[in-house]
Specification:
Largest interface: A-B, 39 and 31 residues
Strand order of the largest sheet of chain A: 3-2-4-5-7-6
Bound molecules: thiamine diphosphate, magnesium ion
Keywords (chain B): Amino-acid biosynthesis, Branched-chain amino acid biosynthesis, Transferase
Low-confidence stretches of chain B: 1-16
Strand order of the largest sheet of chain B: 2-3-1-4
Order of helices and strands of chain B: EHEEHEEHEEHE
Number of helices of chain B: 4
Catalytic activity (chain B): 2 pyruvate + H(+) = (2S)-2-acetolactate + CO2
Radius of gyration of chain B: 21 Å
Radius of gyration of chain A: 24 Å
Oligomer: heterodimer
CATH architecture of the largest domain in chain B: 2-Layer Sandwich
Subunit structure (chain B): Dimer of large and small chains.
Shape of chain A: globular
Structural class of chain A: alpha/beta
Number of strands of chain A: 20
Largest sheet of chain A: 6 strands, parallel
Function (chain B): Catalyzes the conversion of 2 pyruvate molecules into acetolactate in the first common step of the biosynthetic pathway of the branched-amino acids such as leucine, isoleucine, and valine.
Mean pLDDT of chain A: 97
Strand content of chain B: 35-45%
Number of strands of chain B: 8
Pathway (chain B): Amino-acid biosynthesis; L-isoleucine biosynthesis; L-isoleucine from 2-oxobutanoate: step 1/4; Amino-acid biosynthesis; L-valine biosynthesis; L-valine from pyruvate: step 1/4
């Protein structure tokens, strides 16, 4: 049934009809009519952030922790441009977002009007799709299509730019119908190719599952199927940064994360395997290292909903285009119907090889003396929080990699981090979005002091909305990851990688009305963490850690998986050669 | 590897030919892209090429279905087989793109381009220009006592050849449409 209403009302109505309960946003001249409608309803909570970048990251945290699209509402011009980093972040990590931007009225577009920016032009390369709506009559259908596009196929951020006159004008609105959209990406995999993969699995001597964020994006059923598949076949499984939690860290087939700062056993197994089964990952350069020597002896299968991911960087022998959940379901069916065969002799040898690599204990460290090692801080955080209903976000840097290494994830959607773009300033607002979606849960942002300062204004948001997010800052007073690269690559010339003039984080917390905790003594650490957990409100935890600790294992840039640096490799200078040094 | 007995090479039954042979030889391909004629559609395609560093040798676009609002973009591009496959996949995932055809591999196709040449010449050169135009079956669409505008339709190579012949005779200006292409047969 068609109903007449203003564009502004239509927007709120469409959000309600799409099941949206939370919007992250910031008002301004070009969205005032929409904010007036927000004011007059109670179905949707609006979270007022302190910077539009924060709104987008918060929406990402909301989306990743719920599996639902995150929604953002910002004004034209600077509101829209402030959202660009978040959009790019969401695009690279395939996070479904619907971002609504105000625009100057249609008759002023192109006149360099106040707060006019070519928002669809600016955001075309950093959205999955975007629209400028010029007629109120088209607004409702475009909003519904936006939700469809954001959440179907490979998920991603979409943006709708809505001129102010379109918000004021009246047009006809229809509730969403079962999708009539032309955009219907293939979800079922090709059965012949699935069967081909099963045949390869039956004979493989050294197989490995290499899983990624696609498993999580595909929904909880996909993670469940992955677990079934891994446990039934007995194949080892590793994951990218984005895929942590799809297979439980406590599972005995779990090799840990792979990649540049991945575990020794995971990277060695990737290098030496004879059958690599990529499930929803994309052969990112953090994973492959130098392409020429990437897993030279393996047959490679790749399951991905996005055909452009297949053969983009690595040559694939068995390509399967489809949604991870659908493909795994069929894969299991075919494998079972053919008699659940694996090469048990080969597998046994493979596992004994893997056990040798595991015995290296590549994450080993010794906490001694009076300075807290960052690895120790995370080990204690893990021990004291792992039994909680817990969600972790991170910023970007060494602390992020340590968090990935030392925290264990048993479930999908519990780990939000900026993988593809590596956006410092992501974690704090993301933790706000997660806490909005899960008010009763323990939400911790593992942060570096430098990253955290990039969006620290969101303390105001946390306080205003009573969000008890815990900011666990591993404070090394350094842009630690930059410093580490300067140590490896630039002769320890620490150019601009010191965090100078840091605030007193306890006083900063108090200035916002939150709790501040500082801890520098390993002996006080457990009590301090408990105090953080037990405090009912936002906490800034300033954990002073070893300043020049390096993050290992590390595949130096330009090197292969079997050329990792391990803790105790003190000869770190000059490990990156001229060819590797141009890589980032 | 041998134990796995996995056949390599293209599968025709797949929706996507994702098993290209990865050679380093740069090939020229003509792609036909059917896209919804919505604002920004062309910018999306062109932005993809520039953003990802692909080549555009030629590009033409026009609405070909006015009721369905579909435009046809014909792109001549070059790259290694892997890059060409990647281009097709990337263009194919642009939301308003309906179809991507690689006319170079999908069977025989015809390619035509229209060009106009302004040649400024007198005397002997004038006679020679007209004589060559006749051989190439080129139309004269404008003439003054000192100039011609020739209109030529054909494969890009034919147009190149005509341009080379006109250059010494007083070629002053060129306008080319870029390639339009269709598959032969049904
Ligand atoms: C917005 C942004 N700017 C710059 C960088 C480059 N960068 C990567 S890690 C890093 C240092 C981060 O320092 P901190 O947050 O203290 O974390 P640490 O590495 O010390 O744990 C920098 C500057 C980035 N990733 N993002
Ligand atoms: Mg730091």
């Amino acid at each position: 049934m068609k109903r007449q209403m203003t564009g502004a009302k239509m927007i709120v109505q469409a959000l309600i009809d799409q099941g949206v309960d939370t919007v992250f946003g910031y008002p301004g001249g070009a969205v005032l009519p929409i904010y007036d409608e927000v004011f007059q309803q109670n179905s949707i909570k609006h979270v007022l952030v302190r910077h539009e970048q924060g709104a987008v990251h918060a929406a990402e945290g909301y989306a990743r922790s719920t599996g639902k699209p995150g929604v953002v509402l910002v004004t034209s011009g600077p509101g829209a441009t402030n959202a660009v980093t978040g959009l790019t972040d969401a695009l690279l990590d395939s996070i479904p977002l619907v971002v609504l931007t105000g625009q100057v009225p249609t008759f002023m577009i192109g006149s360099d009007a106040f707060q006019e920016a070519d928002t669809v032009g600016i955001t075309r390369p950093c959205t999955k799709h975007n629209w400028l709506v010029k007629e109120t009559d088209n607004l409702g259908a475009t909003l519904h299509e936006a939700f469809h596009v954001a959440t179907h196929g490979r998920p991603g951020p979409v943006l709708i730019d809505i001129p102010k006159d379109v918000q004021f004008a009246t047009g006809s609105y229809e509730s969403p119908k079962p999708s009539t959209s032309r955009y219907q990406p293939q979800v079922k995999g090709n059965m012949e190719e699935i069967t081909e993969l099963v045949a390869a699995m039956e004979t493989a001597k050294r197989p490995i599952f290499y899983t990624g964020g696609g498993v999580i994006n595909s929904g909880p059923a996909a993670s469940q199927l992955l677990r079934e598949l891994v446990d039934a076949t007995g194949f080892p499984v590793t994951s990218t940064l984005m895929g942590l939690g799809a297979y439980p860290a406590s599972g005995d087939k779990w090799l840990g994360m792979l990649g540049m700062h991945g575990l020794y056993e995971a990277n060695m197994a990737m290098h030496d395997c004879d059958l690599m089964i990529n499930i929803g990952a994309r052969f990112d350069d953090r994973i492959t290292g130098v392409i020429d020597s990437f897993s030279p002896k393996s047959t490679k299968a790749h399951i991905d909903i996005d055909p452009s991911s297949i053969n983009k960087v690595i040559r694939i022998d068995i390509p399967i285009v489809g949604d991870v959940g659908h493909v795994l379901e069929d894969l299991l069916k075919v494998w079972k119907s053919r008699g659940r065969k694996t090469n048990s002799e080969g597998l046994a040898k493979w596992w004994s090889k893997i056990e040798e690599w595991r015995a290296k204990d590549c994450l080993k460290f010794t906490q001694s003396g009076k300075v807290i090692k960052p690895q120790h801080a995370l080990t204690r955080l893990e021990a004291l929080t792992k039994d909680h209903d817990r969600y972790i976000t991170t910023e970007v840097g060494q602390h992020q990699m340590w968090a990935a290494q030392y925290l264990g994830f048993e479930e999908p959607n519990r780990w939000m981090t900026s993988g593809g773009l590596g956006t410092m300033g992501y974690g704090f607002p993301a933790s706000i979005g997660v806490q909005m979606a899960h008010p009763e849960s323990l939400v911790i942002n593992v942060a570096g002091e430098a990253s955290w300062l990039m969006n620290m204004q969101e303390m105001g948001t946390a306080m205003q909305f009573g969000l008890p997010v815990k900011q666990f800052i591993l404070n090394n007073e350094r842009l630690g990851m930059v410093r580490q690269w300067q140590e490896l690559l630039h002769g320890e010339r620490y150019s601009q990688s010191w965090s100078e003039a840091l605030p007193d984080f306890v006083k900063l917390a108090e200035a916002f009305g939150a709790k501040g905790i500082i801890c520098s003594d390993p002996d006080d650490l457990d009590d301090a963490i408990m105090e953080m957990i037990n405090y009912d409100g936002p906490v800034i935890f300033d954990c002073l850690v070893e300043k020049h600790e390096n993050c290992f294992p590390m595949i130096p840039s330009g090197k292969a998986h079997n050329e990792m640096l391990l803790p105790g490799d003190h000869e770190t200078q000059g490990v990156i050669d001229a060819k590797g040094s141009v890589l980032v | 590897m041998a134990a796995l007995k996995i056949k390599k090479g293209a599968t025709s039954h797949s929706a996507y030919n994702l098993r290209p042979n990865f050679s380093d030889v740069v090939e020229k391909h003509t792609l036909a892209v059917l896209v919804e004629n919505e604002p920004g559609a062309l910018a999306r395609v062109i932005g993809l090429f520039s953003g990802r560093g692909y080549n555009i040798d030629s590009l033409t676009v026009a609405e070909v279905d006015h009721t369905g609002h579909l435009s046809r973009i014909t792109i001549v591009t070059s790259g290694t087989p892997q890059v060409i496959e990647q281009i097709k996949a990337q263009v194919g995932r642009i939301v308003p793109v309906h179809e991507v055809h690689d006319l170079t591999v999908e069977g025989p196709s015809v390619e035509r381009e229209l060009a106009m040449f302004k040649v400024i010449c007198k005397g002997e050169h004038r006679v020679e220009a007209l004589r060559l135009a006749d051989i190439f079956r080129v139309n004269v669409v404008d003439s003054t006592l000192e100039s011609f505008v020739f209109e030529i339709t054909g494969a890009p190579e034919k147009i190149d050849a005509f341009a080379e012949l006109m250059r010494p005779l007083g070629l002053a200006d060129v306008a080319r449409t870029g390639v339009a292409a269709l598959a032969r047969g049904v």
